[in-house]
């Protein structure tokens, strides 16, 4: 018996040893990049990942678009007990440790990294152009979209257009000059315009088409003052609007209704948020609580326009009514804005219909839009105005936008009236910019207009300033600082942008 | 025949026993049967006395009547030992009957301590080991046995993460060795590495292995120290029945003194003049706190014959939390069986089956914004002028500010139930191949099934908008271990003995889990048990991971007359968690001990009864990272297209082909000194450990698309001094024993990636804009608080320092301008620049204690015994987000009475700023407090009835006691309780977030009555 036991033990020993040799990990339920890409479907899955990164709390859910709002002269801080980082962005006294930048800067690069790895995955399949280029084009579009925002916000910055496998190797790169970044953006968008389809399935606007790429090309060229190219691209979009399915919504307000967001013909590019379904930061939007009244709706009451914006705006303009909430009905009682915790009219766009969100509109159903067809018309008007002055064609584009604004929820009004192209070129350009300010009010566009047109001194320190900031410094404030943490890791990024 | 086989098999043995290539002594010496009886000095027969042939592992134990029988050769020495008695040695001569009397022992040097893969006498110990005995572990009822270690052992810091019933504890041995990897010690339960602890009542002793000599045998898991748990075993003799029962009544340890309704109205109307009085005056702390209690019952039966011994125990622990809606129950069964198959082979089984059930309330919320406030947080913030319910019966919501539910509603309406079933079995077989050579094999299985259900009904704000929200998650963790080792005792000659140990071990852990949920229910009555009835399903999730560790280990102990002792330990570990290039690593240690008292020159020093020096040095590892972290990975990226989620991934982790263990190099120098005939025992240790190749989330340039990568980078140092003192002040009828321990630890970051500061934030999410709150900086302790220096309140006429988001008004917070001027290269010069910016932040404290201590006094006289146990921590700072939230005096929350001293134009001599609506919440020295405390942890008075009485009711012992826990705390901390942790769970945060406080479940003070009966 003893002997048998001993034998059993010996066998057990040997079995145990042979059973233990394998220390190689075989993960189940996680994706390994090196084996992930097998078909175009996988490339698509990787491209789509980038949209989730952008449709997030740090970018189009709150931080980035709010920062753009604060930076301009249309949105001021309401509740000044809010975090200092927001006040600093709004008041032009931020520093390189600003928390808003700390959130959206890395998030943009996660989107870029997602696009880069999708592009590399697409190329790695070695398929014929016709089978894969539409997906590679989509990845390039996302990269261009991200860098277009970044370069306007920060100027020179590292331009990474390849899939990163060894991040430490990037610790010594220098900033890429703005011009090179723009060249990369344009090249990506042109590839996208060539290879993207004219419409996406179900004509959705949350994935780009050739029309989307052209619209962004128009915007990029306008930003660079390349008015001929801007006009050409805008004209291309306008001429082919039927092909792409673009038209102005008859009711301006429809553009901001979450419940019909997926069927809007005016949207050119937007990010789809689904109500009450945030995962991590993805699909987590808080724009609505940011603009809602603190004491009456429970919102945060942070992003509140200066009183001048409301007072200055002609009340006959339907867009003013849509853009503002100046009276709230709470428990059947009318509460004028004088009873708001910040006694100013609050932003009304997005606040009236946010679909399935929580009580203060967080986790809404909105598709936050970055580009509407109205803006294409305004780009065409501005670019053509720069080339040829206020021609009938140029005024015609502007008048399409104005005509739609005269539809006061189904009732035709006579304001704003059509523009007569008899004014000077400068007057016309000013008029278009003014129309952009109102048509696109609070839509995170104004700051970029102020920057590209160098309006800062005028709009923040001038006599008619809507939101005075006497400390505005054009040599510093057109660019935000790169995060201090990035300069610590990579001293080659020094010096930071001027003034920081 | 057997001997022959063994000799033939020696080739195999050799593979595992590097040290035993030439093993003499395998042949048996000439032996005869020795018998006798063991009695105590009080004349009672002693069952269960261990009898060992010196220098071998051959032994036996006395039976019920104190009789023994053993085979021993003439000239060998029999060692009789029993816990609490002086060990006696008898040399076998021609006689074959030896009756032995054992004396009661007050010396601790003969105490047998459990170490890795064996035991050792304290006098033969070369490493640094603390031992905590059963009486200390069961001094008062605890949900988790580790809780009972608090204050009991030098170098061991135990803190509750939160005071909730059944909540987790943080245990640190000699400081936190890591920054981002776990610094939790390794638990070894009856040899089961990573086993679960049975209830404190079933534990015989806990040994804490601290230095490298003691821990290196556990190699890659030894760096954070090892807690060796030995459960109770039966001893030969008639069945012994123990019944222990206690009931405790509990209350919250402290409250904050908040504004009442009138004060709140005045405070609020100062800035919101039209604030409408809601008419009530509610003390929300009254609403949520109640008298809680613990009932704890345990029944055990133990005993045995000469071949079998058993210990079986059942226990029931039931805690009603001090906050409405919280409770914890634990049912557990422990069973230990040992069976001698024959003279050579014994087998045994340790079983633990346990169910825990816990109903939780939300505290320490990660974000207390709309609908997210927890019970304690809300009780401090919520408006006192609001009643419990509205007129329509619904619960009140905050009248201004974030719409949060009142705390009573959160406590009672929200359901959170966790049920966990644990089954742990450890089988072992011990085979005495020869008298000197023993083989042991173990097979352990531990499986833990848990399920958590959460339901947020429509009566709460968070559930209202979604018509109820239900989630269930469930999972199963399994741990299987097989260990095999040989122990060889070689008495080379009279003076030299050698013990060698060699073995190998394989361990596999798997974790799997899943979660599902849905929203929008017809009724609240279904709780989380009808997910299908929810109209809106939530995103389900599931996950699986597996880890394997394979190891070879060995130890060599050499003793010269027990005067000079040498120990070498080594373990060679392979772990699947690590990268393909670095799966294996080697962890050696060595130690030397010198029993100086045994030297001739000490012979006449009568004052000193024992004096031993110990010195050790060695390497241990920390492999506490999750599986698959070295592999590049795509993760799901939740993306909505066309109104619905789609398949989408993005890169989230980059590969690290070289990632490997953290290595801790520890030096220890210690002494064990006994004075006055062993009446005073002192242990002193100095240690210094440096952990290098930290498993560090190294920040990457974020333009790479990745925020960080786990790399082996950075160094942390812990060094310190430990003293522990045990004194038998008086003996005889009136006994007074004192135990005191004190530990000084200094933690310092020695190296960081590129030498750069690393800033990070830990504040609750809804305290927006706090941003970075802490810093890792070379030369400073891990997790130093980082913020502005608060300089009191601005007065009229002061020069207000400009700065974005900083107040520039009288009555506003004033901060110090300390930096901001840059040189030509853009580097900060440390010169003020006249502006307040983020450059003016500096280190404003840290949560590391200068020292921690425990002081225990036991008195006994006749049947009475009195225990007084103090425990404390000195020099640690607390950053209180709780007080930051309610005392910033901005916004809509209620505040403490401190608000009554706020700055007004007529009350200017104050450091409390004025009431406002436009002050940003900001981390500053204003919120950093001295967290030192001394606490009367336990005071207990017991009475053991005289034998005459107990025997008249047929019990052998009956003891009644009353005790109180945590009834006195001395502290300057202004928050509820200085014993706090916040945002401090999970490996990333467990070391770097020390000394934070936010809305914690308070610890309880208790009054206990209990009864112990033995039959």
UniProtKB/TrEMBL annotation, chain A:
Pfam families reported for this sequence: SusD-like_3, SusD_RagB
Top-level taxon of origin: Bacteria
Membrane as UniProt keyword: yes
Keywords attached to this entry: Cell outer membrane, Membrane, Signal
Domain SusD-like N-terminal: 83-222
SUPFAM superfamilies, per database record: TPR-like (SSF48452)
Record-annotated RagB/SusD domain positions: 342-500
Location(s), subcellular: Cell outer membrane
InterPro entries linked: SusD-like_N (IPR033985), SusD_RagB_dom (IPR012944), TPR-like_helical_dom_sf (IPR011990)
Family, per entry: Belongs to the SusD family.
Protein name per its UniProtKB record: RagB/SusD family nutrient uptake outer membrane protein
Lineage of the species this protein comes from: Bacteria, Pseudomonadati, Bacteroidota, Cytophagia, Cytophagales
Automatic annotation (TrEMBL), chain B:
Region Disordered, residue ranges: 895-916
Bilayer topology annotation: Multi-pass membrane protein
InterPro entries per UniProt: Beta-barrel_TonB, Beta-barrel_TonB_sf, CarboxyPept-like_regulatory, Plug_dom, Plug_dom_sf, TonB-dep_OMP_SusC/RagA, TonB-dep_OMP_SusC/RagA_CS, TonB-dep_rcpt-like
Protein keywords: Cell outer membrane, Membrane, Receptor, TonB box, Transmembrane, Transmembrane beta strand, Transport
Domain TonB-dependent receptor plug: 122-226
Organism domain of life: Bacteria
Compartments (UniProt record): Cell outer membrane
Sequence ranges assigned to domain TonB-dependent receptor-like beta-barrel in this UniProt record: 421-773
Keyword Lipoprotein: no
Pfam family membership, one: TonB_dep_Rec_b-barrel
Family from the record: Belongs to the TonB-dependent receptor family.
Name of the molecule in the record: TonB-dependent receptor
Organism the protein comes from: Algoriphagus pacificus
């Amino acid at each position: 018996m003893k002997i048998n036991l001993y034998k059993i033990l010996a066998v057990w020993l040997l079995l145990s040893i042979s059973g233990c040799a394998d220390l190689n990990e075989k993960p189940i339920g996680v994706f390994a990049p090196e084996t992930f890409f097998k078909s175009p479907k996988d490339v698509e899955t990787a491209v789509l990942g980038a949209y989730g990164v952008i449709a997030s709390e740090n970018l189009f859910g709150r931080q980035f678009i709010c920062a753009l709002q604060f930076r301009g002269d249309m949105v001021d801080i309401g509740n000044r007990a809010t975090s200092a980082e927001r006040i600093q962005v709004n008041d032009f006294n931020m520093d390189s440790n600003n928390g808003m930048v700390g959130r959206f800067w890395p998030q943009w690069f996660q989107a870029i990294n997602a696009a880069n790895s999708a592009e590399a995955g697409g190329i790695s399949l070695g398929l014929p152009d016709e089978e894969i280029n539409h997906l590679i084009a989509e990845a390039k579009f996302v990269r261009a979209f991200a860098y277009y925002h970044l370069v306007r916000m920060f100027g020179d910055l590292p331009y990474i257009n390849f899939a990163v496998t060894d991040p430490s190797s990037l610790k010594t790169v220098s900033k890429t000059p703005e011009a090179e970044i723009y060249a990369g953006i344009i090249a990506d968008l042109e590839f996208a315009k060539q290879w993207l389809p004219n419409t996406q399935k179900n004509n959705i606007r949350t994935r780009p088409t050739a029309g989307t790429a052209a619209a962004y090309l128009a915007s990029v060229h306008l930003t660079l003052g390349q008015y001929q190219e801007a006009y050409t691209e805008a004209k291309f979009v306008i001429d082919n609007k039927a092909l792409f399915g673009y038209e102005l919504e008859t009711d301006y307000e429809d553009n901001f209704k979450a419940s019909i967001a997926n069927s809007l013909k005016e949207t050119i590019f937007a990010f789809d948020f689904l109500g009450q379904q945030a995962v991590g930061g993805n699909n987590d939007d808080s724009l609505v609580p940011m603009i809602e009244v603190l004491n009456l709706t429970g919102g945060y009451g942070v992003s509140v326009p200066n009183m001048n914006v409301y007072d200055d705006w002609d009340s006959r303009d339907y867009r003013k009514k849509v853009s503002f909430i100046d009276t709230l009905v709470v428990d059947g009682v009318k509460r004028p804005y004088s009873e708001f915790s910040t006694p100013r009219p609050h932003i009304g766009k997005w606040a009236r219909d946010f679909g399935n969100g929580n009580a203060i509109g967080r986790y809404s159903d909105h598709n936050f839009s970055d580009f509407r067809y109205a803006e294409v018309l305004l780009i065409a008007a501005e670019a053509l105005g720069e080339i040829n002055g206020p021609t009938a064609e140029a005024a015609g584009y502007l008048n399409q936008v104005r005509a739609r604004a005269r539809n006061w929820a189904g009732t035709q009004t006579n304001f704003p009236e059509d523009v007569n192209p008899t004014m000077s070129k400068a007057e016309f350009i000013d008029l278009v910019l003014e129309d952009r300010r109102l048509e696109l009010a609070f839509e995170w566009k104004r700051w970029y207009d102020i920057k590209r047109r160098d309006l800062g001194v005028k709009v923040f320190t001038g006599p008619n300033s809507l939101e005075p900031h006497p400390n505005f410094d054009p040599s510093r404030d057109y660019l935000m600082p790169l995060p201090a943490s990035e300069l610590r890791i990579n001293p080659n990024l020094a010096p930071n942008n001027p003034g920081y | 025949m057997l001997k022959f086989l063994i000799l033939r098999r020696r080739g195999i043995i050799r593979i595992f026993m590097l040290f035993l290539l030439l093993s003499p002594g395998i042949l048996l010496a000439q032996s005869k049967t020795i018998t006798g009886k063991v009695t105590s000095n009080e004349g009672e027969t002693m069952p269960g006395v261990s009898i060992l042939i010196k220098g071998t592992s051959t032994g036996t134990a006395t039976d019920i009547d104190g009789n023994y029988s053993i085979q021993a050769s003439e000239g060998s020495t029999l060692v009789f030992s029993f816990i609490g008695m002086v060990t006696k040695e008898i040399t076998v001569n021609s006689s074959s009957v030896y009756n032995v009397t054992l004396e009661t022992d007050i010396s601790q040097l003969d105490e047998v301590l459990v170490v890795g893969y064996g035991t050792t006498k304290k006098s033969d110990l070369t490493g640094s080991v603390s031992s905590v005995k059963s009486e200390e572990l069961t001094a008062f009822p605890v949900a988790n046995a580790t809780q009972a270690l608090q204050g009991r052992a030098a170098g061991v810091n135990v803190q509750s993460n939160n005071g909730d019933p059944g909540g987790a504890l943080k245990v640190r041995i000699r400081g936190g060795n890591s920054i981002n990897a776990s610094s939790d010690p390794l638990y070894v339960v009856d040899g089961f590495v990573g086993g679960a602890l049975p209830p404190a009542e079933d534990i015989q002793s806990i040994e804490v292995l601290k230095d490298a000599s003691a821990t290196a045998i556990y190699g890659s898991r030894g760096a954070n120290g090892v807690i060796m748990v030995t459960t109770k075993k039966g001893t030969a003799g008639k069945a012994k029945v123990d019944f222990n029962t206690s009931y405790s009544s509990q209350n919250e340890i402290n409250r904050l003194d908040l504004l009442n309704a009138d004060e709140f109205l005045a405070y609020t109307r100062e800035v919101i003049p039209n604030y409408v009085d809601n008419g009530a005056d509610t003390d929300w702390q009254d609403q949520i706190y109640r008298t809680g209690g613990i009932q704890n019952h345990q029944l055990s039966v133990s005993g045995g014959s000469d071949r079998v011994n058993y210990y079986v125990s059942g226990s029931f622990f039931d805690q009603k939390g001090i906050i409405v809606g919280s409770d914890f129950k634990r049912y557990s069964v422990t069973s230990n069986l040992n069976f001698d198959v024959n003279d050579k082979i014994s087998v045994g089984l340790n079983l633990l089956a346990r169910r825990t059930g816990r109903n939780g309330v939300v505290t320490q919320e990660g974000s207390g914004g709309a609908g997210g406030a927890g019970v304690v947080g809300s009780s401090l913030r919520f408006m006192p002028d609001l009643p419990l319910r509205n007129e329509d019966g619904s619960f009140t919501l905050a009248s201004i500010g974030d719409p949060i539910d009142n705390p009573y509603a959160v406590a009672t309406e929200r359901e959170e139930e966790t049920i966990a079933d644990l089954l742990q079995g450890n089988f072992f077989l011990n085979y005495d191949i020869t008298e000197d050579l023993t083989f042991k094999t173990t097979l352990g299985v531990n499986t833990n099934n848990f399920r958590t259900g959460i339901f947020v009904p429509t009566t709460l704000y968070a559930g209202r908008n979604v018509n109820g929200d239900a989630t269930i998650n469930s999972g199963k963790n399994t741990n299987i271990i097989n260990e095999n080792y040989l122990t060889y005792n070689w008495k080379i000659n009279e003076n030299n003995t050698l013990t060698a140990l060699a073995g190998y071990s394989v361990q596999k852990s798997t974790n799997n889990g899943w979660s599902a949920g849905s929203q929008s229910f017809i009724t609240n009555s279904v709780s989380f048990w009808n997910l299908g009835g929810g109209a809106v399903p939530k995103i389900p999730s599931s996950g699986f991971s597996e880890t394997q560790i394979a190891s070879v280990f060995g130890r060599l102990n050499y003793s010269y007359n027990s005067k000079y002792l040498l120990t070498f330990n080594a373990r060679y570990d392979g772990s699947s968690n690590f990268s393909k290039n670095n799966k294996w690593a080697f962890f050696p240690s060595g130690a030397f001990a010198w029993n100086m008292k045994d030297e001739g020159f000490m012979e006449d020093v009568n004052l000193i009864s024992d004096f031993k020096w110990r010195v050790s040095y060695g390497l241990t590892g920390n492999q506490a990272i999750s599986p698959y972290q070295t592999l590049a990975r795509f993760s799901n990226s939740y993306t909505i297209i066309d109104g619905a989620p789609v398949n989408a991934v993005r890169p989230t982790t980059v590969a690290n082909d070289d990632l490997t263990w953290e290595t801790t190099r520890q030096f220890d120098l210690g002494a064990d000194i006994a004075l006055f005939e062993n009446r005073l025992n002192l242990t002193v240790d100095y240690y210094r450990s440096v952990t290098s190749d930290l498993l560090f989330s190294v920040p990457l340039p974020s333009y790479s698309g990745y925020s960080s990568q786990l790399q082996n980078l950075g160094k942390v140092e812990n060094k310190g001094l430990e003293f522990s003192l045990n004194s038998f002040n008086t003996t005889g009828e009136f006994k007074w024993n004192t135990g005191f321990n004190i530990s000084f630890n200094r933690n310092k970051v020695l190296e960081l990636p590129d030498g750069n500061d690393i800033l990070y934030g830990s504040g609750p999410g809804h305290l927006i804009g706090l941003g970075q709150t802490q810093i890792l900086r070379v030369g400073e302790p891990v997790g130093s608080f980082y913020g502005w220096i608060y300089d009191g309140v601005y007065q009229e006429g002061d020069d207000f320092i400009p700065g974005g988001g900083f107040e520039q008004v009288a009555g506003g917070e004033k901060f110090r301008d300390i930096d901001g001027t840059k040189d030509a290269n853009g580097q900060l010069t440390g010169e003020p620049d006249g502006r307040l910016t983020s450059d003016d932040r500096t280190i404003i404290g840290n949560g590391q204690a200068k020292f921690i201590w425990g002081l225990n006094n036991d008195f006994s006289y006749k049947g009475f015994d009195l225990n007084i146990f103090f425990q404390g921590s000195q020099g640690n700072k607390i950053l209180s987000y709780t007080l930051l939230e309610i005392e910033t005096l901005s916004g809509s929350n209620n505040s403490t009475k401190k608000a009554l001293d706020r700055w007004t134009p007529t009350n200017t001599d104050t450091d409390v700023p004025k009431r406002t609506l436009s002050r940003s919440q900001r981390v500053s020295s204003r919120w950093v407090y001295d967290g030192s405390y001394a606490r009367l942890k336990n005071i207990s008075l017991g009475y053991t009835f005289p034998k005459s009485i107990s025997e008249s009711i047929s019990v052998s012992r009956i003891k009644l006691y009353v005790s109180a826990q945590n009834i006195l705390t001395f502290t300057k901390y202004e928050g509820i309780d200085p014993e706090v942790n916040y945002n401090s769970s999970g490996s990333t945060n467990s070391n770097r977030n020390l000394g934070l406080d936010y809305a914690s479940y308070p610890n309880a003070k208790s009054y206990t009555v209990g009864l112990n009966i033995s039959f």
